[in-house]
Design goal:
Layout lengths: L7 E4 L6 H16 L5 E5 L5 H9 L6 E2 L18 E2 L4 H10 L5 E5 L5 E6 H10 L14 H4 L4 H7 L3 E4 L11 E3 L13 E4 L2 H10 L4 E4 L14 E4 L4 H7 L24 H8 L6 E5 L5 E6 L10 E5 L15 E7 L13 E4 L5 H12 L5 H15 L9 H14 L3 H12 L7 H7 L1 E6 L2 E10 L2 H5 L2 H14 L4 E8 L4 E7 L3 H8 L7 E5 L4 H15 L3
Parallel strand pairs: 1-2, 1-14, 2-3, 4-5, 8-9, 9-10, 10-11, 14-15, 15-16, 18-19
Antiparallel strand pairs: 5-6, 7-11, 12-13, 17-18, 19-20, 20-21
Helix pairs in contact: 1-10, 1-11, 2-13, 10-11, 11-12, 11-13, 17-18
């Protein structure tokens, strides 16, 4: 099973940018170096061209895509995959469930290992309690246990701890009736029938006057004089009564398993869904099967009680709307961020580190230094790229001397020239020729709440600024489409010109007057050029927040 207790999920925001991805990877590396072996980086969306370039440049694999942080069965420590073949006797299931602590259900598989049914302790008890009187196991009408359930001959002998001393039973399973002691006067005995005898005298008579397939000598009776018997002769030490009482334990578990009421979960099933299904079900344990039908494990009600959520570390964000689906169920243990403090709430204290710097990786660089952990060359490269990306090569107003100092040190470790690398990175990131407007809008889109206004703000960097502006009609159409499909009051797009150090701001929605008040647009305008505005975090969000919360519009 997965070691859920040790797993730590580290990720940035949805529609991740370079800082979000590089922060997750570099911080996961630091956590592992400090002993958190289960720490791993993840991403919440597709990589943008700039981030792809960075990862390829430094030879780092992209993080695994994480759809949500809701608990799944595969995250829990459930019972190990232990099943019983449908041909095994019921006693095997009974013994397994009695000796396996907490387990009260046995999955039943075919010989290929595919789960076909289940059996619980209650099911087995019902067999023993409600079958016919054991002294009437069979008759010439073939009534009783041998008629209604499969009993393999080898299983029967094994359960009785018998010793076959002669002859053979011609059939794999008990095909006829099972008699005890005497033979009814009207019985039509044939080689499919089996009889349990308690005396050697009765055994002689049975062997030479009837055409039985097998005679079982109970009570340790010696098989004297049966050397020439044509049927199988089996000796058991148990009394005739004890032998009869053991017969039901030889029933093939496949013939009594429950298939109609079987509920099998996938390892990927959400724990919330499991709890709902478990309520009101008579079984307390349930099989968990792989896609091919083989057994993954067995889950019980106790496995889903009080397990806590996935351990999560959020980097480069601290807003629920920007985080993974199911974040409210997660156990957030750390937040490392350089944005405003937003709306994340936790049930217990956590480690948080917020600093007014231009990039999350600047903070992580400092944490490497403070921990005394040597920064590997590839991690240095990733953190450098994130700082250059977030600060637009130190030209953004969010850039601090701390960011610049960290970048210079990281560049030495990564053995790259800052300006040359920045040019290559921005060139790769602004190559949008093959991307649709829909893809561009989703590259770095974040959701924000300004009072009662929900807004989505995207930002893309561009070198060939005019090319994108020629696609104004497409941009507006795609923004309108997104606006109509999502519950929000405002949709915005910042196209930031890295060379000219300014942004073209596109805007639409019912709350457009908020942007008009903040940046001087008019009701007739869909976009406006803002010279010197390159930072969404420090130049767009604060103005909109202030106007919305102070009620100035």
């Amino acid at each position: 099973m997965n070691n859920f207790k040790d797993a730590i999920y580290i990720f940035g925001h949805k529609n991740p940018d370079t800082d979000s991805i590089c922060a997750a990877i570099s911080y996961a590396n630091l956590k592992r170096a400090l002993g958190a072996t289960g720490a791993a980086a993840y991403r919440l969306g597709e990589l943008n061209p700039e981030t792809e370039f960075v990862l390829n440049f430094f030879g780092v694999e992209p993080p695994e895509l994480l759809k949500d942080v809701k608990q799944r069965i595969e995250d829990l420590e459930i019972y190990e995959p232990r099943a019983i073949c449908e041909k095994e006797p019921v006693k095997v299931a009974w013994d397994m469930m009695r000796t396996k602590e907490g387990s009260r259900l046995a999955p039943i598989t075919c010989q290929k290992g595919i789960v076909k049914g289940i059996i619980g302790l209650g099911d087995i008890t019902e067999i023993f309690m409600y079958e016919d009187d054991p002294w009437s196991l069979g008759s010439c009408e073939n009534e009783g246990v041998a008629k209604f359930h499969e009993i393999l001959y080898d299983n029967l002998i094994k359960i009785l701890d018998g010793r076959q001393i002669g002859g053979t039973y011609k059939y794999e399973k008990l095909m006829g009736s099972l008699y005890v002691g005497a033979v009814p006067a009207d019985a039509c005995v044939n080689d499919k029938d089996i009889i349990i005898s308690g005396t050697i005298e009765d055994a002689w008579k049975l062997a030479y006057q009837y055409d039985f397939g097998c005679i079982i000598l109970a009570g340790g009776v010696a098989p004297r004089g049966l050397e020439n018997a044509k049927c199988a002769i089996v000796c058991v030490e148990a009394s005739i009564f004890k032998s009869v009482s053991l017969v039901k334990q030889a029933i093939s578990v496949g013939s009594v398993m429950n298939t109609k009421d079987m509920i099998a979960f996938s390892p990927h099933t959400y724990v919330d869904d499991v709890v709902e299904i478990m309520r009101g079900n008579r079984y307390r344990n349930f099989p968990v099967t792989n896609e091919d039908g083989t057994l993954f494990g067995v889950i019980s009600r106790r496995h889903v009680m009080g397990t806590g959520g996935k351990k999560v570390i959020m980097v480069d964000h601290n807003e629920r709307s920007q985080s993974a689906a199911g974040i409210e169920q997660a156990d957030i243990i750390e937040i490392i961020d350089h944005h405003r403090l937003a709306d994340i709430q936790t049930d217990s204290p956590l480690f948080s580190r917020f600093e007014p710097v231009g990039c999350t990786c600047t903070i992580i660089y400092k944490m490497y230094k403070e921990s005394g952990v040597e920064i590997p060359k590839d991690m240095a490269g990733l953190m450098l790229a994130a700082i250059l990306s977030d600060t637009l090569n130190f030209s953004s107003p969010t850039c601090t001397f701390v960011d610049k100092g960290a970048a210079e040190e990281l560049a030495k470790i990564a053995e790259v020239n800052i300006d040359e690398f920045a040019r290559e990175m921005f060139r790769a990131g602004t190559n949008l020729d093959k991307m649709s407007i829909e893809q561009m809008l989703g590259i770095d889109r974040k959701r924000f709440n300004f009072g009662n206004i929900t807004a989505y703000i995207s930002q893309i960097n561009a070198i060939d600024f005019d090319t994108l502006l020629h696609r104004e009609a497409e941009i507006i159409a795609e923004m309108q489409k997104f606006y109509e499909q999502n519950e929000c009051q405002l949709v915005m797009l910042m196209i930031t010109d890295i060379i000219q150090n300014g942004s073209e701001l596109f805007v639409l929605g019912r709350a457009k007057d908020l942007v008009d008040a903040a940046f001087g647009t008019t009701a007739a305008q869909n976009h406006i050029y803002l010279p010197g505005v390159v930072s969404r975090k420090s130049q767009i969000i604060p103005k909109l927040t202030q106007l919305a919360t102070t009620g100035l519009i």
